Amino acid sequence: MNWVPADAENAHTSSMESCPSLRDVHSINPTHLMARIESYEGREKKGISDVRRTFCLFVTFDLLFITLLWIIELNVKGGIETTLEKEVLHYDYSSSYFDIFLLAVFRFKVLILAYAMCRLRHWWAIAFTTAVTSAFLLAKVIISQLFSQGAFGYVLPIISFILAWIETWFLDFKVLPQEAEEENRFLIAQDASERAALLHPGVLSDGQFYSPPESVAGSDEDSEEKQDSEKPIV
Questions:
Q1: For the segment 133-185, what is each residue's pLDDT rounded down to a tens digit?
Q2: Is-contact 75 131, C-beta < 8 A?
Q3: What are phi and psi of 65, to 5 degrees?
Q4: Separation of CA 203 from chain center
Q5: Rounded Cα gap, residues 99 and 118, in angstroms
Q6: Are 69 and 159 in contact (CB under 8 A)?
Q7: What's the CA gap between 74 and 84, in Å, rounded?
Q8: Cα separations (Å) of 65 from 61, 164, 206?
């Protein structure tokens, strides 16, 4: 009878104990991966990410803030109706603030259409609105006579310029990189779950683990004695 050395037997036992079972690998890793995939799919079902929604809210704030400043400017100059008729119906590029308000409306429509409705994942729309805003405000400040009309001659162009560039920074450094990172994580998790499903297609039930019937100890000796007893005695 062959005896296995004690060291080899202990090493084999420790290696078997250190290896995770098929049931543990299948019950922990795939479940965790599927939970992550479901969380990403839930975000996709919402239609728009949280960071993109924040960007759209800031674009709306841009329009409302410029509108509020323009209404205050109309009221300060001697009444909303009189000043509104002067700046809109009798528009003058060198002295009217109505074009700055229209510039804010232009940014709002383009950005909401591009990044809220069409869900664009490129910076060309924000680059276009920021370039138009910057060029128009620089030309208006140089050519017009806004600085001679009090504090609003400084406030409205500067605030409009700053808000346009904050929108550009927020989209380029927050919205697009974060959404790209979340999409990459989703693809990695999905690929890992597919590999786990191929490696472990299913959990084996307890009934599928079986051992062959054990032979009775000394069965060979009993069969030999039986054969000897059946031989005729000479």
A1: 999 999 998 888 777 777 778 899 999 999 999 999 999 999 999 998 988 88
A2: no
A3: -70, -45
A4: 32
A5: 27
A6: yes
A7: 7
A8: 6, 12, 68
